[in-house]
Design goal:
The structure holds two protein chains of two kinds. In chain A, 0% of the residues lie in helices and 48% in strands. Chain A is mostly beta strands. Chain A is globular and about 35 Å long. Chain B contains no helices and eleven strands. Chain B is an all-beta fold. Helix content of chain B is 0%, strand content 60%. In chain B, β4 (31-37) and β5 (43-49) form a beta hairpin. Chain B is globular, with a radius of gyration of 13 Å. In chain B, the strands form two sheets. In chain B, strands 2, 4, 5, 9, 10 and 11 form a six-stranded mixed beta sheet that branches. The chains are: A mainly beta, B mainly beta. Chains A and B meet through β5 and β10 of A and β5, β9 and β10 of B.
């Protein structure tokens, strides 16, 4: 699982509800990432964090929020403002920030909003 | 704009065949990651390379910096190799290709 735990594996929500996806890592790595995967498309970066209490928007941050209060945890909230939230969400970690370091992925959470 | 293009999008082969998946990338990308995504969705990092060739078991990855092209080869393919293979270019951030869905039939 790349040293990352994501839960739950499947999540169902009604439209208009906020939902929080969990991501925990146990390897004391500084950087963590959230990606979204849609059928036929490459992974797209939602948010990333290189240190505790700091995070940066990725390419598709609108409708999402994150927090990084602890090094090991980087939860993602999919808000009701996200127009098309149904997707597969992947969390990743690396020893350093962004593209310069190999990233290790969690098992993913498949979110379905109806 | 940093871009990564993979081909083919889908590939079906018989067990034992030699498999090649290609990845072309744009200026500004300094290295390539090859990733494997299992049917359940989990992603495993296979290789990260910025020059030459790397080998792990039946998997071989090559990169040609001048041509901005990388290939992933699988020798003696097996049904358990069936997965989506993704290349990702290393720039300011990772830039992901769309993936190649590989199916190996017994």
């Amino acid at each position: 699982d790349g040293g990352i735990t994501q839960s739950p594996k499947y999540l169902f929500r009604k439209e208009g509800q906020n939902v929080t996806l969990s991501c925990e890592q146990n390897l004391n790595h500084d950087a963590m990432y959230w990606y979204r995967q849609d059928p036929g498309q490459g992974l797209r970066l939602i948010y990333y964090s290189q240190i505790v209490n700091d995070f940066q928007k990725g390419d598709i941050a609108e409708g999402y929020s994150v927090s990084r209060e602890k090094k090991e945890s980087f939860p993602l909230t999919v808000t009701s403002a996200q127009k098309n939230p149904t997707a597969f969400y992947l969390c990743a970690r690396s020893t350093g920030g962004q593209g310069g370091y190999e990233q290790y992925f969690g098992p993913g959470t498949r979110l379905t909003v109806t | 704009k940093n871009e990564v293009e993979q081909s083919p999008q889908n590939l079906t082969a018989q067990e034992g065949e030699f498999i090649t998946i290609n990845c072309s990338y744009s200026v500004g990308i300094s290295a390539l990651h090859w990733l494997q995504q299992h049917p359940g969705g989990g992603i495993v990092s296979l290789f990260m390379l910025s020059s030459g060739k790397k080998k792990h078991g039946r998997l071989i990855a090559t990169i040609n910096i001048q041509e901005k092209h990388s290939s992933l080869h699988i020798t003696a393919s097996h049904p358990r190799d069936s997965a989506v293979y993704i290349c990702a270019g290393r720039a300011q951030k990772l830039v992901f290709g769309q993936g190649t869905r590989l199916t190996i039939n017994p």
